[in-house]
Amino acid sequence: FITNLCMNGVPMGLQYSITAIGSTILQAAVNTLGSTYVAAMTAGSKMFNFTCCPFDALGSTMATYSGQNVGAAKFERVKKGLISASVIGSVYSVLIFVALLFIANYLIYLFVSPSETEVVVQAHQFLLINAFFYIPLVLVNTVRFTIQGMGFSGFAMFAGVAEMIARSLIGLVFVPIFGFSAACFASPLAWILADAFLVPAFIHCLHKLQKAKSSQVTSLY
């Protein structure tokens, strides 16, 4: 029992640690651009974190939902639940992006004075670019936590590695060349790379569980 807990818990802990490394490298690169861009990224990130709360909720829901249905050997329900959660998240993504087109500046004013024109402009750019890619972020949360609930935490950790590589690459290579605009695309690139790994990983895990169930049924006869 303790071994199973460690096998599932340790990769989850490492996943967030690995992701944080990439974020730290990116932040260090932005710091070299000056205080204006640091303030812009800070303000944009605060609003980003606020608007992304539903994605975290969907992820936590899918972890519990998939774990319960894997325990009951109802694997098709896991697939249907993942699709439903992803659709819900995608609809929210479209709605919040449209809303931000009109109210992003007003939200930024909660953290930055309107007189700080350059900071507001850059924070607005950061927030809208990230919001445009919220659908890939939906998949990162729903698919990753579904895989964890299915008992394959190691795969989720590798998705964190993909995110770290993307953010580190942007921070070390592209921010010095293209400046703050490159930093705005760091997280979207990280989400896309993570999805490129997570979606095939989910299909593999689901097939593996279904095959194991079929083998058990066959052995009974």
Provide a brief overview of the structure.
The chain has helices at residues 2-31, 35-51, 53-71, 75-108, 117-132, 134-149, 153-178, 180-184, 186-220.
Structure description:
It contains nine helices and no strands. The protein is elongated.
Give the CA-CA distance, first to last residue: 30 Å
* Helix share bin: over 70%
Low-confidence stretches are none
| Biggest sheet layout | none
Query: Count of helices?
Result: 9
List the helices and strands in order.
HHHHHHHHH
**Rg from C-alpha positions?**
20 Å
Key words describing this protein structure:
single chain; 221 residues; mainly alpha; 0% strand; elongated
SSE blueprint:
Layout: H1 2-31, H2 35-51, H3 53-71, H4 75-108, H5 117-132, H6 134-149, H7 153-178, H8 180-184, H9 186-220
